[in-house]
Structure formats: structure tokens, C-alpha cells
Design a protein that fits this description.
This protein is mostly helical. The chain is built from 9 helices and no strands. It has one domain. The longest helix is centred in the middle third of the chain and has 39 residues, at 72-110. The chain is elongated and about 70 Å long. It is found in: Membrane. This is Ycf63.
Length: 252
């Protein structure tokens, strides 16, 4: 299966490199970027806001118990930027976008619309897969940053309203732990996740068979495979990126 997915990605890239981008291709990419980015923004922000508050409630009371007020912002910031924001954003995109991509392409496949593209001498990989891959690679890091900012402000809100921790104390602690390397690595994670999600979802859409039942089965397998890939690669990337780093927490 992974060899087939790799072959699908390579063929999409090669087919795109061999031809020029026309106005329709630019429009197609922009259309997919809108679907992945702006159309997913509301659910990403709402989810990040409430997950950030829930996570804060679980963390803050434990640090207040050991009188580590100055570490609260640092710990939450590191958790959000390294793990929670990229993974949470990717899971949302899997549920909303991967299922959409697979269902759309699978429907086109079982209704023989892909054969029509071949008859028109249009490469489906170049026309259908490549714009979706580019859209996910570009928009997922943007959603990740917005998710991180939302989680940070929701944490600050909970700290102030429930635990009476002034936002100034929270953000001073937060900024002391935030570094460019963590931001870059978080963005790199989402670029890789975006590539995985888009390629896997398009692959299962293109290999769908068996009418409406096949569309449903392909969509289910696509979502499950994408989620597993995100979790597995998250562990591998976290181990490579952060395992040998020293502590980012600075006691204020």
C-alpha cells in the first residue's frame, strides 16, 4: 500500500513538472486552498479554543499546588507549539478534508469521470491530485499557527478568570520558552502531515471500486489510514526533533 501511495505522489509531481501551469490550474489550486484553509478556519479556532481551556485546567492546578506559577505559561506554550496544535489541526483536517477528497475522487472514479479526463488528454494526477497536495502543504501550517495563537489566548483567559493569574505573568513566562526553532519544527510537522493526508486521501479515492459501497469503504479506510499516519509520524518527528534538546523552561 505504501509503495502505491509513494508511486501516486511521484507520478503527480512528475506529471506536473512535465507541463506548464495554465490559468485553470492556478484557479484549481486556489479553490482547493480555500476549501482546506478558510473553509476550515472556524472549526479549527473553536476546537483549539476549548481544547486549550480544558488542557489549561488540567495543568494549572497541579503547578499551583507545587507553587510553580512562573512555569505555567512556559509549559503550556511548549505543549501547544510542539504537539497539541499541529496534531489537533491535522486531526481536524483529516476529519473534514481527507474524507471530502476521498469521497469526491471516489465518486468521480466509480462514475467513470476519470476516464473522461483521459479521453480529453488530461492527466488526473496533475489536474486532481497535485492541487490538493499543494493546498494542504500550504494551508495546514497557516491553520497550525492560528490554532496555536487561539490556544494560547484561551489559556491566558482561563488562567485569569479562574486562577487569578495576570495575563502579563502568563505571557512573560510563555515568551521566555518560545523559540524560533520550535515554531519552525511545528510548521515542518504540519507540512509533512499535510502531504501525508492529501496523498493518502487522493490515493484511496483513485482506487475506489464498486459503486456507492466502494465510495464509503474508501472514505473510511482513507480517514483511518490518515489518522494512523499522523500519529505514527508525529512520534517519529518528535523523537527526531526534540529528544536530544535540553529544557526550554526558564525559571523567572
Amino acid at each position: 500500500m505504501f509503495n502505491d501511495i509513494k508511486s501516486c505522489l511521484c507520478n503527480a509531481i512528475n506529471s506536473r513538472l512535465k507541463c506548464k501551469l495554465h490559468n485553470s490550474s492556478y484557479f484549481n489550486i486556489l479553490e482547493q486552498m480555500k476549501i482546506v484553509g478558510p473553509d476550515s478556519l472556524n472549526i479549527v479556532i473553536v476546537t483549539a479554543f476549548f481544547i486549550g481551556m480544558v488542557f489549561t485546567i488540567q495543568i494549572v492546578k497541579e503547578f499551583l499546588y507545587i507553587n510553580a506559577l512562573s512555569l505555567i505559561g512556559s509549559i503550556l506554550t511548549i505543549s501547544f507549539i510542539r504537539e497539541l496544535s499541529p496534531v489537533l489541526t491535522s486531526v481536524i483536517i483529516v476529519g473534514r478534508i481527507a474524507s471530502y477528497f476521498t469521497a469526491e475522487l471516489a465518486t468521480m472514479n466509480v462514475t467513470e469521470q476519470l476516464n473522461a479526463l483521459y479521453m480529453l488528454e488530461v492527466n488526473p494526477l496533475s489536474y486532481l491530485v497535485f492541487p490538493r497536495v499543494i493546498a494542504c502543504i500550504i494551508m495546514l501550517p497557516c491553520l497550525n499557527i492560528l490554532s496555536f495563537i487561539t490556544s494560547l489566548f484561551s489559556s491566558s483567559f482561563i488562567c485569569f478568570t479562574i486562577y487569578n493569574i495576570h495575563p502579563e505573568i502568563f505571557f512573560i513566562s510563555s515568551l521566555s520558552a518560545l523559540c524560533i526553532q520550535d515554531i519552525f519544527k511545528s510548521l515542518l510537522k504540519t507540512v509533512i502531515f499535510g502531504c501525508l493526508i492529501s496523498v493518502i486521501s487522493c490515493f484511496w479515492g483513485l482506487v475506489a471500486r464498486g459503486g456507492a459501497k466502494g465510495v464509503g469503504c474508501s472514505t473510511t479506510v482513507s480517514v483511518v489510514t490518515s489518522l494512523l499516519s499522523v500519529f505514527i509520524f508525529d512520534f517519529l518527528l518528535s523523537y527526531i526533533m526534540f529528544n536530544k534538546l535540553g529544557s526550554s523552561v526558564k525559571v523567572l
